[in-house]
Amino acid sequence: MKTMSATLASKEFGRFIDAAQREPILLTKKDRPVAVTVSVADWEELVALRIERGVAAGLADAAEGRVTEMTDEAIEQRLARFRTRHPDA
């Protein structure tokens, strides 16, 4: 994976975008890695793989009996936990 400083990426944005179409680019700021830029095609593939992995995990959980029926009560309990963790939501 190529590395480019954020300063250089800013100054040579066209070159940076072109490079990201060919391979992921690791962006650094003050010599620390801060981000990775990938092409849209690579991003879509990563998202699809993540979804497939989630579906496979869900199917495995169901096959092993690790499921919870989503009754009104179960939904309210989950909402209450969410609201406790995210009071501004």
Automatic annotation (TrEMBL):
This is Antitoxin. Belongs to the phD/YefM antitoxin family. Pfam families: PhdYeFM_antitox. Transmembrane segments: none annotated. Antitoxin component of a type II toxin-antitoxin (TA) system. The lineage of its organism: Bacteria, Pseudomonadati, Pseudomonadota, Alphaproteobacteria, Rhodobacterales.
